[in-house]
Amino acid sequence: MRLCVIPARGGSKRIPRKNIKAFCGKPMISYSIEAAKESGLFDKIVVSTDDAEIAEIAKSYGAVVPFMRPSELSDDHTATIPVIAHAIKASVNDINDVEAVCCIYATAPLVQAQYIQEAYKKLLTCKALYAFSATSFPFPIQRAIRLTKEDRVEMFSPENFAVRSQDLEEAYHDAGQFYWGTPKAWLEGKIIFAPHSTAVLLPRHLVQDIDTAEDWIRAEFMFKVMNLS
């Protein structure tokens, strides 16, 4: 069995009701459910939520909600890994029947089925514990600067001031879309960003965190330009 878990708690603070707020005409969570279905990889697409309205909307788009997430896993400080581990145990009768589990965030409207498929293949071929989406930084992180308390500028790595950008090692960051993992990795709480993991690289135009109103506007603009609807 291959299991998809979409965590979607109801208590979003920065953008209220973010998981089901209309994004380009549809509830935000619907894009994650549809990408999971389009991938053709999953025997079950589970939404982990503590919110009845989110549960009903998720079911209307083809996901299942076999449990309501307990309150101790629904606050602002709950990490993703314990939520996925709980969902695995609450969704299947025999853990040994589960081959792989993919967490897809509910707030990833630019997520594409092809990259979910690619990451699954990498999980298997690399014999990794996790395979997740990542993308490159648009500017060399080695030349990053900070503003001091005196409102002056200093480099994080002054030794790189005279190094050409093209000579610096490229750096990547989590794309915040999906995370494949073995059941054992999720259940044992193995960290994701470690040598036992691999990554699928996404083009930067498919990556946008959505934490503020400005992020939301930018993401909708990106979505419309790419005509993904």
What does this structure look like?
- With 229 residues, the chain is of the alpha/beta class.
- It has one domain: Spore Coat Polysaccharide Biosynthesis Protein SpsA, Chain A.
- Helices cover 28% and strands 21% of the residues.
- The protein has 6 helices and 10 strands.
List keywords for this structure.
229 residues; two-stranded antiparallel sheet; six-stranded mixed beta sheet; alpha/beta; Spore Coat Polysaccharide Biosynthesis Protein SpsA, Chain A
- The count of DSSP E runs of length 2 or more, i.e. the number of strands, is 10
**What does the average pLDDT come to?**
95
Residue fraction in strands = 15-25%
Helix percent reads 25-40%
CATH fold name, please?
Answer: Spore Coat Polysaccharide Biosynthesis Protein SpsA, Chain A
Structural classification: alpha/beta
Pick out the low-confidence regions: none
Per CATH, the superfamily is: Spore Coat Polysaccharide Biosynthesis Protein SpsA, Chain A
Number of helical elements: 6
Q: How many domain modules? A: 1
The run of helices and strands is: EEEHEHHEHEEEEHEH
Taking the sheet with the most strands, its summary is: 6 strands, mixed
Distance between the termini: 30 Å
CA radius of gyration is: 19 Å
Sequence of strands across the biggest β-sheet: 4-1-5-9-6-10
- Briefly, what CATH class? Alpha Beta
Shape: globular
Annotated CATH architecture: Alpha-Beta Complex
